[in-house]
Amino acid sequence: MVYRCERCGAEYETDDPPCAECGHQWFEEVSAVVESTGGYVWVCTECGRAHTKNSPPCSRCGNHRFEKRDQDYDIGTDSAPGYLDLATPKYLLAAGVTLLVLSLFVLVIVGVVPLPELLGGKPTVSNVPGEAETANGIPLADAEREVLANLSDRRAATGLEPLREDDRIGDMATYYNQKRAKADYAGGEQPRTEGLPRRFDVGCSRPMALVTVPNGGARLDVETAGSADELGRLIATRFAASEAVLSPERQRLGIDVHVLPDGTVYATLVVC
Question: DSSP label at 60?
Fold first, then answer.
């Protein structure tokens, strides 16, 4: 006599529960099962795949729910479902997530979406030619501070409040300046102002003002300045030509100074 576990289908020579495979406490005689039902199988409730044992998960779809059915039922369509039969909400969701991940991966590879921005960071420009820290022995951060001081003095002379540095606006100025310098020197896409404040989470009470050097005029060479203060004053003089510098509604700013390998000074001022 052969006995079979009612739960998982494991077979034994004696009726001596529990089942060593699943711990179930009830066995059935195999002959009795065959005579009464013609045998049975365990069918996945998700995709219809038939299994000889109740041992989830399903070998086809990973579902953990099986249904016990007589073996003489029509399993032709259940055991070999078509593609439309598998289009359940779970599979459609998985397919959608996979497609989204692949699309974002392609956008990062072709450079449409920078990886730092995709991960929630601020946009950056990679492999920018030239110097962002020191050029011709001049610390460029010191030159930026002199630009701020010089422009604030010009505002004070007209009775206006001094300008205040803003880190987010500074990051935006750096991105725009470096992207512009790289495009001019090495070729590539010029930066766009549309949507720029949103990408850096910058709120302005009025449309931001963006001033650049060079801007259609003579280039500024870093070798014409003997110090950071002198370079800052030269840049501030060019920035001062913009009405935005003396606007009472604008009080926050960001500055970036970058020097290309040929000595050309690129500077960007963003005022909010």
Answer: T
